[in-house]
Amino acid sequence: MLGKIIDYYTIKNQVFIVFETKKIIATIIDDGICNFKEEETSSFAVDVNGFIFDYINPVVEKIDNAIKITHGRYKYVINDNFILSIYFDDVLISSDISYYNNKTNEFIDNSLLEAEGHAVNIEEEYKYIISKKINSNDCLYGLGDKTGFLNKRGYEYDMWNTDDPAPHVDSFKALYKSIPFFIVFNKSYSYGYFFDNTYKSNFNMAKNNSEVVSIGFTDGPLNYYFIGGNNLKDVVSNYTYITGRMDMPKRFTLGYHQSRWSYSTKDEVIKLVDNFKKYDIPLECVHLDIDYMDGYRVFTVNDERFSDFKNFTEEMKNKGVKLVTIIDPGVKVDSNYDVYNYIVKNKLVATENNEVYVNSVWPGESVYPSFIDPKLRTYWGELDGKMLDLGVSGIWNDMNEPASFNGPLPSKVEFSDGNRIHYHDEVHNIYGHYMAKATYEGMKKHNNERPFVITRACYAGTQKYSTVWTGDNHSIWSHLQMAIPQICNLGLSGFAFAGCDVGGFSSDATKELLIRWAELGAITPLFRNHSAMGTKRQEPWQFDDETISIYRKAVKLRYELIPYYYDLFFEAANTGIPAFRAVVLEYPEDSNTYEINDEVMLGANILASPVVEQGKRNKLVYLPSGTNWYDYYSYDKFEPGYHIYDAPLDKLPLFVKEGAIIPKYPNYESLDDPKNIIFEIYPGDGTYIHYQDNGVDFNYEEGEYNIYEISHIDGNIRIDLSYNGYKLYDKIYIKYKNNIQEYKEIGTILKIE
Ligand code: GLC
Q1: For residue range 23-68, what is the model confidence (pLDDT) as tens digits?
Q2: Ligand 1 centroid distance, CA of 611 (Å)
Q3: How far apart are CA 449 and CA 250, in angstroms?
Q4: In Å, how far from its chain's centre is CA 348?
Q5: CB 730, CB 670: distance < 8 Å
Q6: For ligand 1, atom 7: residue with the closest CA
Q7: Residue 371 DSSP symbol
Q8: Edge-to-edge strand list for the sheet holding 331-332
Q9: Which residues carry out catalysis?
């Protein structure tokens, strides 16, 4: 209990509210963005000091012992015991409940449950619980990579990065990522809460009471953000303003990636790449899992199986294929291994009671680098740089929950930040975040190119450093289904660049599952087929000719759409709005979209409705209201509403919004230097902005990019160009229905019919 308000004062955009036992600072960051925190609170994910502004001057009043802060359309009213109410245009949209018990009072005999092999809920002791009132028809989105459906209402989750190889089902409380941010959405308002607390916490999403969300924290100071906005997109944008946004991705990363645990010799990889050529399936990147290393020692290469690695990466590049290597955090205990010697000698590893902490992962006995220490990050980043010198094009960070073969690390394992010790229970959830930061910063410093980092574990804000995948899913239909809401919720939680293991990681894929998964993969931001050792191999030719030909079609569809995706990533880098969007993000006015789990918007212009059920050869499609839609392939017109659409095995149902113009690459352009572009015109007048840069470095941040503005009015197409240094396409084509014409002169009109 914080007690009564006894005083308050304001400095710049910060209001200091003095309670009997504590001081809370309310920082008005922007219209609708406010941080509430205890004094002396710092953040692992957010540069809080960066939000102190002279030019924001909230109106602060004391009325009946409550502090009222007004800024823009928002009012924050703070009462004794820090009971907070928030008004938008004078309508109450969020309020606190003084105390809410989120546990049931039911009699539970854990010993009986245990005897029959059930999981036993260990009652967490919460240091404090924050309970927020919601309306019974609000939808709850976000929370990162949690299992289940798009709307999280009625469920309960934990924030505790967890590596559990069992099939991820709806009742799982935690997966690999902790993104303590959720959105409350209703037709009349949207807002979010970001609880910047890295300790284990529990998010009860109106499970016990349909009008209360309550969040219990096992430790840590109070530090959270109210994030409002005029609409759902604004909330996502405002959240990413606080926690950061991705860079433009390197263009090749949007291509097709092939992986397996493990391609374990050079010859195997060469054969793999040759097969992709032979079967005419575009391939951009091969991922090397743990077996490329020497005894699982990170930053080493096995000389026998991958001899002359630098030449090998070069040889692959000549074939148009880049290599990504996995780097895990666990460093093998081995006194002949320089990485181990360096980090132990320099005290850059986790300790327990001041002794180096050792646990087991792939290399056997291993030590855990302390990624919160900048010295370790610099050293680690330099090692990542050496991988780049070997010709590697991306780094894949795994096992960084951190995982071990003996369950979670004990809570009192010590991690030094160089100045003081933090215990594992405080930094567990940010271990992956700081590993990704080390990797990103090391790579960027090394060659000043856009780093391609993939991480399994992360925290709010890791999107600044890394793309993510959803970890060890299974080759089961329910995981194909879950991938859509899971990647949508990651997008609503700031992660615009995300994907899942196409085909499923564990268990055995069937032909039909792989095909339908490739169709989904073709539209997820990261498109990587990955599977576990010992499972049925998942390269398309492991099945039959039909699989190869449909797989090829899906991958080629992806390549056709890459310029459109690249434009969407430009939007994501600037606004935080993801490419792969929950339909509600585009159609918040249409209540039929609020719980769509089997469709997704690709930007504002394309709706995809993948088939995610075995044996289905048609799909019940919902097309949102307010526009007509056109079949991506045939231009057939569809009115908004429900339709049964034929979806044979080789078809991913795609619909284009009226008036859309979609940029496409003609027949598999090289992503290093795409030479030609098609603008495909769908019926209806419209405009489109297309972005073009070199796809590699940060020059775009200095404005080195071209913008093409395409307009379509009544059959007249005109393209205007703002040229800023990047070399132009050789040829631009305009496609309308089956007609392709070359567009020869910028600024002129070309007629289509
Ligand atoms: C973990 C990863 C998986 C990888 C395996 C071996 O299970 O999630 O992707 O293949 O480790 O490195």
Answers
A1: 999 999 999 999 999 998 889 989 766 799 999 999 999 999 999 9
A2: 27
A3: 8
A4: 29
A5: no
A6: 472
A7: T
A8: 331-332, 364-367, 358-361
A9: 398, 401, 472
